[in-house]
Write a structure and sequence with these properties.
homotetramer; alpha/beta; Rossmann fold; Dihydrodipicolinate Reductase, domain 2; 2 domains; seven-stranded parallel sheet; 14 strands; 32% helix; globular
């Protein structure tokens, strides 16, 4: 059995990894770390895992002997963990933003501090399988994409690649609150956000350059993204509305064809007429769709921010990196309602 | 005491009018109609009005003897009610879309049927006081604006008027569910919309030409709007995110100045750094604010869709039309939390 | 492969059955009926099933050739479907209330009309596996329990059986809105219920006699239940707070022991200190727990109303009836968050 | 003009007091304190008050020269503030639990520390006007009731007083999250509570003895309360379901009469068939109602936890204490929707 480790197992991303992996037919979780919960059983801290795993959190893990390690720590910390993992011979998937931007200068500009692992940064592959499947297969280090960036890139990239839209893109993102993590804060306080829509980090959010990079790498176009993230009072789910100018000569039929060509053979990304958060919630599926009027295209990208927007996509990458069936462990349909 | 009538008093807009007017110091509700509840006491149908009004719903009302009548019926019906009201000498405020678009051809295009009252259509004034106060004062017929159009026009118009932005505008609207009215439907069914964000009528919503008209009339610019309405799972409240290109030579300081100049003296519209639905919910207040980055401006318009987005604004218009204090009856602050 | 039919596949219960069965390792959905969607592909009507099933809805199904048929129609209709299924030799699981109350007089009293299939009513087994596993194994017809009744019976029965509590029970139930089905109505209209807690059918709800029967059959005690159902603004999930007097001489240690003895070996029902809707949402798991003070016990029963409260439990029964592994197809952990 | 002070003006209770008092016709807010926001304008910290008050927070306030001071600090702190206020000659209303339980031993038992102001504790009047109006009128110190206790006492007391119910009472409370205050915590974190119902402090909540005291003082009966508080994912609003045995010989008609007799002349408490959170949200109104079956009565108490459950009720007490119209400043109807 393939042995997996998770560094940072108590956050939403880490426990969602465990939730998925505990039913994976081809791997086993050999170690999970947690600073504050070391020594406690995982299923005591995350009671939805009762009956699914018997392991306890450890303070640290030894990557030697593991095949792959997920690093589910905050950015800035991840790049201190990754080198040792790779040196030990294990593969690594970083859930944070530390290895997403290829250019250390970009990283420093958007994250506000220097990158300490420029060597591996240059080797990391951006883990969006529907756009970069080939590179992920051969990778030792995958940077798992952000949830907003995944939803937007899936919606934008097929159109950009085929030259159907202009390079100026506005992304209006609506995220469920679980995307903001498990640490209580004023913005996530229910009386504050429970009956509101809350914009934050407008024009300055770190997924902005990530969207540009992902779409650019895939399409060859150099998009310029303006991004407005907004919290909506749902727990799981995300809708990104991406606005672009229709390129001259393109018609809506071209747009449909682009999505069908791109995603017709995909298991997890579906081109639909009415993208629906409920249809994908709880699953690794994503919906894309669009409307066009008067020369403007709005492309919708919809997913569960904790699954296709985080841990599910990471497992999909893991499957590719380890030569397993790409969908292993990810067979849950969306909740529907 | 000034006598007021309400045609269509059981819908959300009609009962919200009653909720506001029952505390108004200068007018009294003399008659409210309801087809299905004729004969029942208003406070039995709308129990939050218990102790505030003793009148009963009538099947119809006689406008003669009334000073002003609110028409809170669906579009298409309103234009059958308005002529008789005006003929009787009473003033009228139409809550529906029937008198908002000045051009009958536009009306027919967006509403799908012919306008039957072209004569009064030409006389109607668009009831957004912060933009058209003078005209409203002298009007006999006011077309009360739509909620999306109000939120967007308040955010866009000051910038458009001063030439600070380009004419292509994208409006990404998020509305509380009460904006969709009181008739149960699949889209408003809690299991469907309660944990989702639901786009609808994308690019075809009737507030699109209304935004263009309102901003155009005020600013002289001819905006071209692409509008995406989306339901979010809150009951009251609306946030419209309006995207525009920054005009050459303009800087963010110009944008702030534009809003301050426009709204500095206003009682209900406030230019703030962080527009907040909770701060205005339950009140006639609206927030506008903006962020700018890389040549793109996002202007936010925030309000309670039933108050400043509907019945509160209508009462504000009524006050102007009747020569009363503009804020009479509208002194409630937002709920805050 | 074992062949399964579903009568009434477009409602929440029917489509949830399909959501679970499409991943079941031992059965296949051979036919699903829908009056209004006959001829359409199931995955077009329920888009979360895209990629999981290719069948189309039929107007009716022929039970001969099927091993088991789920009847997911409203009560009153089910008892017209069941006889033909059983006559054909297939087994049947009725999702409605038609076969839950053993006594036709009780049925008539609470459902308001006569029972038309008294013969099979006498043979039906109440499908709550943790309480009636043996009977379910041998049954041809299972009455799948109601969601409230399941949550309450799981919490009450172990205490009643051991004589630790008195027979007067108050059940204060809080249900997610999906429990009320997919037909839009005033009570489920988001602006009405989205920021409220709505009691309904207080003291008269049909799950009242069902709770009494289930607890009574299991424990030998004859409980008298007063039941208050209340809608809370969540989509999936249910918490029933069940109040009982502590029997003389019993102490809280007895209560813990009762639950541990009863559920210690169960896969889906867990005795925990803090029952949590989020920990079981999306899964067939249930939580029970309790607090005791001053001679009063409150026992909590928590589950996902569409899974352990409906379709998941039905699949669990199916597994027992067909001699399959009881948990087959039901291995999803709760969402956690 | 009567001069009012508020100690602790940034919490939800304090800012709600300001929201109500800023429109009060007979008093003015002369001073508000806040440790962390001293020096800042109130309307900058609570933006919904922009245009309603120009004062700034001070570090402390001098009660001499003020007519009445609201103490909106956490329990334990309040009893350090109250003596100086009373010594200065001002009246005081304490929003915390410090002066609610008359017996210092009870206080110590439930609050876990000694009471430091036993002298004033003996003089404090429990500020529930519909039950203790006379005493409040003459009081110098009022203990403003807790939200759960208000909702339950209003529902229970009229029945207890008339001997229509037994003394064992179960209170199953459902509270909006704003009742838990503005400090972020794990329990109020949206991803945790936003799609859940969360019991807490079951059987040990401090409003338990408060309910017993309030009902006991009013009715002469000595109730024994078992109380389960539960958070529901709404922001404002509370429903307490109170279960009691029907006394021998009483019939439901007696119950209706009891409520009508008790509340028929009240402005803010209404006996209705279907108590509704939405009908009272945003207002000082409360609904009570009941159902009875098989000898059990469930009485519902419904209110907005921040208004009738906290700051609105405090203003109602203030009006009584100062000889003003009891409803001054409290004329807002419920939101309805």
């Amino acid at each position: 059995m393939i042995k997996i480790g998770i560094i940072g197992g108590t956050g939403y991303t880490g426990s969602e990894l465990a939730r998925i992996l505990c039913r994976h037919p081809g791997v086993e979780i050999a170690a999970m770390t947690s600073r504050q919960s070391a020594g406690r059983k995982v299923s005591d801290v995350s009671p939805f895992l009762k009956g699914y795993t018997d392991i306890a959190f450890s303070e640290r893990l030894d990557p030697s002997g593991l095949d792959l390690v997920f690093v589910a720590t905050p950015h800035g910390v991840a790049m201190e963990e990754v080198p040792a993992i790779l040196d030990s011979g294990a593969k690594a998937i970083d859930m944070s933003g530390d290895y997403r931007l290829r250019d250390p200068a970009q990283y420093e500009k958007w994250y506000g501090h220097e990158h300490k692992d420029a060597k591996n940064l240059g080797e990391a592959v951006y883990g969006l399988p529907e756009l970069f499947r080939g590179e992920i297969r051969g990778a030792d280090l995958v940077a798992n994409p952000g949830c907003y960036a995944t939803s937007a890139a899936l919606a934008i990239a097929p159109l950009a690649k085929r030259g159907l839209v202009g390079s100026r893109v506005i992304v209006d993102g609506k995220s469920g609150t679980s995307g903001a993590g498990m640490v209580p804060s004023a913005r996530l306080h229910h009386p504050f956000c429970g009956e509101s829509v809350v914009p934050y980090s407008v024009g300055t959010h770190r997924h902005t350059p990530e969207m540009e990079m992902a779409v650019g790498l895939f399409s060859g176009m150099e998009p310029e993204v303006f991004f407005t993230p907004q919290l909506v009072p749902i727990v799981r789910g995300m809708l990104s509305s991406c606005y672009m100018g229709l390129a001259e000569g393109a018609d809506p039929g071209d747009l449909s064809r682009a999505y069908r060509d791109q995603y017709g053979g995909e298991r997890f990304v579906h081109f639909v007429d009415e993208p629906s958060i409920r249809a994908v919630a709880g699953s690794n599926h994503a919906h894309v769709g669009f409307r066009e009027a008067r020369g403007t295209v709005v492309a919708f990208g919809v997913l569960d921010n904790l699954v296709k927007g985080a841990s599910g996509q990471a497992v999909q990458c893991m499957n590719l990196m380890l030569g397993l069936d790409e969908g292993a462990g990810l067979d849950a349909p969306g909740l529907g309602v």
